[in-house]
Amino acid sequence: MTEHASCDEPGGSPAAGDHVPRPLPADDHVHSQWSWDADAGSMELTCARAVELGLPSIAFTEHFEVTTWVLPPGVTLPARWAPLVHGDRLTPPPLDVEGYADSLERCRASFPSLRIRSGVELGEPHRHEAPVRDVLRRGGFERVLASVHSAPVEASGGFVEYSVRYLDLDPVDVVRDYLAETVRLVEDFDGFEVLAHIDYPVRYWPTGGPAYDVTAFEDDYRAVLGALARSGRALEVNTRIPLSVEVLRWWHDVGGDAITFASDAHEPSLLAHGFAAAVAMAEATGFRPGRDPQELWGRA
Hints:
The structure is a single chain. The longest helix is centred in the middle third of the chain and has 18 residues, at 171-188. This protein has 8 helices and 14 strands. Strands 1-2-6-7-10-11-12-14-13 form a 9-stranded mixed sheet. It has a 3-stranded antiparallel sheet with strand order 3-5-4, with no helix packed on it. It has a single domain (27-299), classed as TIM Barrel. Strand 6 (115-123), helix 3 (129-139) and strand 7 form a beta-alpha-beta unit. The protein has helices at residues 43-53, 97-110, 129-139, 162-165, 171-188, 218-231, 245-253, 275-284, and strands at 27-30, 57-64, 69-70, 85-86, 89-90, 115-123, 143-147, 150-153, 158-161, 194-195, 234-238, 258-262, 287-288, 297-299. The two termini are 33 Å apart.
């Protein structure tokens, strides 16, 4: 759903005497046409939207996926993904680092008032260290995110995307399995700056049954957050779905020093969606911007 400028975003028109909210922070997790799953992505239109919203900067963190996924029977995929499917396996295409870099430079020339960072989102980099190190060397990215999207399945000898895990596992087990895999990522791979979407499987939590309760997974989240804090890296506040405020409180409790804000937008209209609420939540849990609005937020 497209978000239009309103009184809680730059570009709105608050009435005289109304509180003028803090400007929106940088969006440090954005996808364009250079991400294989961003069917409606456009780097140029996303930059134009960022200028419209008054964002201080954006980072185009395109997907770099090496894991081949096993597809469940009867799955329906977009037609344009057909060349990626062989039998019951989907293999994401490689990131076109050179084409991406050329597009980035054109946008920097077209939008000189906007800080446009290069970036990459590494899927399961702890499983694929050699190709990951190679793409990092070639890309010279300014924002490096790490994420978990899929899980190993012994029965098939492959990996399945976490939304598929709900087909054969209890939802509680899916989330716990995901968070345990995320601990392995944090502890086994040191080549990233920000942990992306710590609550990724919650996007697909099944309806019609028990509601998702973040407090049931406190120990599991704290295991991830503690490992991340000890490594000195940042936690992403991803607004694809609202992050539970408890997760940010736990991040502060375990000594987490920094956060970023991330729309995870795969189309221009979703850039910075939910940021006003995310900013308020971050401030309420003890985080503040630094002197440079383009940089990470830290502890108050």
